[in-house]
Amino acid sequence: MEEGQYREICKTCDEILMDDSSGIACTAIPFLHIIREHPVFLINYNSLFNRVSGFKTLIKDLYLITRSVAGLVKRLLFSEKKYFWETYQNKGSQFDLIIVSHLISEIHVGRDQDFYFGNIPHELISKGNSVLLVLMNHTSKNAKDLAEKWNGNKVPVVILSDSLGMVKELGLVWSVLKEAIRLKKYSFNQRLLKRKLVSRASVEVLSGRTIGTLRMYWQLQSIVSLAKPKAILVTFEGHAWERLAFAAARSVEPGCKCLAYQHAAIFRVQHAIRRKLKPKYNPDLIFTSGTVSRNQLVQSSEFSESEVLVLGSDRGINEIGMRVQMRSTDPIRHACLVLPEGIESECLLLFNFALECAINCPDLVFIWRLHPILSFKTLIDNNPSLRDLPPNITLSSDSIETDFTVSKWVLYRGTTAVVKAIGEGIKPVYLAFNGEMTIDPLYELNEWHESVLNPIEMKALLYADKDKTNSEFFSGYEGARNYCRNFYNPVSVTTLSSTIKSGSI
Fold first, then answer.
1. How far out from the chain centre does Cα 181 lie?
2. CA distance linking residue 260 with residue 279, whole number of Å
3. Contact, 303 vs 287, CB < 8 A?
4. Is the model's pLDDT at 144 over the cut of 90?
5. How many other CB atoms are found less than 10 A from the CB of residue 310?
6. Over 70: is that where the pLDDT of 353 sits?
7. Per residue, what are the HEC states of 76-89?
8. Per-residue buried b or exposed e for 255-281, using 16+ beta carbons within 10 Å of the residue's own CB
């Protein structure tokens, strides 16, 4: 997709969301919230600029509707029958802050450290704040069984359920059916692109993702009405559910302050996180993971300087000083670490590219590393071209820190793990494609930062670096490391604690 097309889609989706007739059900449609320019995020929008017959569009819509109905029936028949608040152990308590985070995997169950907020909830308690942690459940386990693993924890935990019971679930269905009809009528007499987007939204509103967002909205309303918090804090990337979390809190506690935590990288033309919607859907204050992202939001978003503060992140780089440069003289560090995101299509792009590079550079080692949510067995089973690998390719089973110690370069595309790699003295090499909007999280970095388009360019870069002296190789490194030090600043819980206590939001 061309950048101009991308920007036009973003603008048109915002028009739909900002229309006077658009309410909660419309804002709950994930399809209308364009997160960023990543090819995987844009797959569902590519057809908007293609000439597709009315018959093919009808078939696709029927498929989406059928899938949504099947998911609904399955949920009504087999999902939890108990309401989420039966897992709530502190019904009589009030809290200063509700934190809404995510339970991504069963291995995180019962841990003190939250996957996104780390030790922030416990540190807030040590500073005299009362905190309730609400987790969106992305596992297959039911909420009640999961919540019991946190019994006795200093931070009370509520797990959102995947069902509200038969009657309320049918109520959700009725609300999205009404919205589907409204959107279909609204699509008439609109310009071509807007008509296509509204028409597609009238189908997407019936999806499990939209109904799940509305379910979360209803549950958060109930939790906020019980806990009566001074503030609510949610992870913030621009998703539909984040905006509905703010609306849910305000609908029952108008004085509740809505705080957002930008925890992931902000990409060059990332959209939804940068724009405001109707007032009830906007955060009062955005906390960022570092100075870099704060500057990006202040300079290129609809949020003012006073609405954005640095909170920090535990994903920052270590203070490593000269030991990086000393260690990088070791000949073993002539390995290239291949570091994809946790997306199978991105793994295949990088690994196929790295395979050709390994064949062209037989005296260099290429270490392939997978995101924890994927496995080499599944990836290779599904892609026979990866089964017969040359001896200079290693499939890593070590920690990422171990891989760092033997690597001189890191080949990547959209992963933010590259920030820590730079901190360990590993030169970043971004794989770009002609005509593609960049998905490089280091798009602002102009020092000690390479980009290649093909294996020939990669080979030339690797051998040129291999022949450099240590001082030549590290020319510009300090600037790159300083940039990355501000990408994720150290966590300052005092900033958040004082904000909650003072009420100066």
1. 31
2. 14
3. no
4. no
5. 21
6. yes
7. HHHCCCCCHHHHCC
8. ebbbbbbbbbbbbbbbbbbbbebeebb
Q: What's the pLDDT score for residue 57?
A: 67
Q: How far is Cα 104 from Cα 426, in angstroms, rounded to an integer?
A: 29
Residue of 216, 272, 268 lying closest to 239 (CA atoms): 272
Render 430-498 in DSSP notation, one character per residue: EE--TTPPP--TTTT--SS-EEESSHHHHHHHHHHHHTS-HHHHTTTHHHHHHHHHTTSPPP-HHHHHH
CB 267 within 8 A of CB 233: no
355-373 burial string, b = 16+ CB within 10 Å, else e? bebbeebeebbbbbbbbee
Evaluate if residue 382 carries a pLDDT over 60.
yes
CB atoms within 10 A of CB 451: 15
Q: What percent of the chain has pLDDT over 90?
A: 71
- The DSSP symbol for 302 reads S
Instruction: Centre a 10 Å sphere on the Cβ of residue 382 and count the other Cβ atoms it contains.
Output: 10
103 bridge partner residues: 137
In the predicted model, is pLDDT for residue 188 greater than 90?
yes
Spatial separation of the C-alpha atoms in residues 204 and 202, rounded to whole Å: 6
DSSP character string of 128-162: T--EEEEEEE-SSS-HHHHHHTTTT-SS-EEE--S
CA 52, CA 213: separation in Å to the nearest integer? 30
Q: Residue 479: which region, alpha, beta or left (left: phi > 0; alpha: psi -120 to 50)?
A: alpha
Tokens of 226: 């019980």
Instruction: Report CA dihedral (64, 69, 74, 75) to the nearest 10 degrees.
Output: 100
Q: Which two tokens stand for residue 157?
A: 């935990």
Q: Out of 171-175, 274-278, 430-434, pick the least confident.
A: 171-175
CA atoms within 13 Å, Cβ hemisphere of 80? 20
DSSP letter at 316 equals P
The residues pairing with 411 across neighbouring beta strands, listed in sequence order, are 338, 429
- For 342-404, the DSSP string reads S-HHHHHHHHHHHHHHHHH-TTSEEEE---TTS-HHHHHHH-GGGSS--TTEEE--S-HHHHH
- What is the rounded distance in angstroms from the CA atom of residue 247 to the CA atom of residue 279? 9
Residue with tokens 């071209």: 385
How many angstroms separate the CA atoms of 96 and 229, rounded?
5
Cα distance between residue 275 and residue 348, in whole Å: 33
Specify the amino acid at residue 468.
K
